[in-house]
Specification:
Length: 304
């Protein structure tokens, strides 16, 4: 049984993490469902006990002190350990509990992520599930640091996910060129990258895994291309293509049935792999259950 003192300490750790992430006491209190005065009192008591300030406060924002930065790392680890202990105890009696954070890139094509999330929630209603969108590089960093439990990634087929992660490949395929229906190449059977070298490209931001796929393919072919427009959303990229502002390279599954667009195969185009990935060290029961849900969805898709 957790005594009152232990409970207070856990709450203090949660408050520290919330303030560090929100950079604001008011938002942190709202996030923790507590009045701000109580949160501030607990932080002041913790700082007095530690004999050092964890935060530097100003009228506009809150920043961590060096001691606060060091404390934050351990606070996250302690909270994760406490949550894991509760989850493992629940798993021992046939329940999956705890929290689960899932990262989803905007170009997942191999599985229906909404269907997987819905099925997981129906099977494990006691798991506090959160989902956020972003890019593969960001997700790999967050998986490594423990800020994220599971993520769907899309990377160049020749580039393995970051070390320290376990990844299960869920799809692999070559990207297609997407052009406007009135484009000179719209009715070509199959293209080569050399056919596209003079085009203006619409692509993901420089340095991102989505962008790297095209950059590596053109470099391997000894060609240089011009990226005139950067975007994080495939919908925005396709809207620019539709208006004749450039071409892009995407998985064919990302191209909607739109008479204003054409998807053309590229023989030497980028090859992309999709993964579901998680931290290699002792994944939580909720993480393991979610990964099994993904694998089950893939199996059903293959049978279908």
């Amino acid at each position: 049984m957790i005594c009152y003192h232990d409970w207070v300490e856990l709450q203090q750790l949660r408050y520290v993490v919330a303030i560090a992430e929100e950079r604001n006491f008011t938002r942190a209190a709202e996030r923790c469902f507590v009045v701000q005065s109580a949160l501030s009192h607990q932080i002041k008591a913790l700082e007095q006990e530690l004999g050092t300030a964890l935060f530097v406060r100003s009228s506009r924002r809150v920043d961590l002190t060096p001691a606060g930065e060091a404390f934050l790392t351990e606070a996250r680890s302690s909270l994760a350990a406490a949550d894991r202990a509760a989850a493992v105890a629940a798993e021992a009696v046939g329940q999956v509990r705890g929290s689960l954070s899932v990262g989803v890139i905007p170009t997942v094509t191999a599985v229906s992520v909404p269907d997987i999330i819905a099925a997981f929630h129906a099977s494990h209603p006691h798991v506090d599930l959160t989902v956020r969108s972003g890019g593969s590089n960001e997700f790999m960093r967050d998986l490594s640091s423990g800020r994220l439990d599971v993520a769907f990634l899309g990377v160049d087929a020749d580039v393995a996910p970051a070390s320290g992660l376990t990844a299960h490949e869920i799809a692999r395929g070559r990207l297609v060129a997407v052009v406007a229906s009135q484009h000179r190449l719209a009715h070509t059977g199959t293209l080569a990258l050399a056919d596209l070298v003079d085009e203006t490209f619409i692509d993901f931001p420089a340095g991102s895994p989505g962008r790297l796929q095209g950059d590596r393919a053109f470099a391997a072919a000894g060609l240089q291309r011009r990226v005139g427009f950067e975007a994080m959303s495939t919908e925005f990229m396709l809207a620019l293509v539709e208006r004749g502002l450039g071409v892009c390279l995407l998985p064919v599954e990302c191209v909607p049935a739109n008479p204003a667009l054409r998807a053309v195969p590229v023989a030497d185009g980028p090859c992309r792999a999709e993964y579901v990935a998680w931290g290699s060290f002792n994944p939580s029961p909720a993480s393991r259950a979610f990964i099994e849900q993904v694998k089950e969805s893939i199996a059903l898709h293959m049978v279908g």
